[in-house]
Known about the structure:
The chain is an alpha+beta fold. It has helices at about 20-30, 45-55, 80-85, and strands spanning about 10-15, 35-45, 65, 70-75. The longest helix is centred in the N-terminal third of the chain and has 14 residues, at about 20-30.
Amino acid sequence: MTGASTAHAVTLLTSSDCQLCRHAKQVLADVGRDHALDIEEVDLDTERGRTLAAEHGVMFAPGVLLDGRAFAYGRLSERKLRKALAAA
């Protein structure tokens, strides 16, 4: 974890039996060893999940919101996430 930095809020929009969702969870776990992440998982089959997906243009699972903004959907790139966190 980095020194005194505040945690980045990550919302992970998932669906059941989603292989890419499992991949995204692993990427977040790996990146979380080096960056402070506050991860919330929200099922896309819930009202909140559908609302977040619609608001942020998430077309399919997994969707990732980083600090309240759309970051990615589909296969999560660990490299892209690390680059965005380093720039923040």
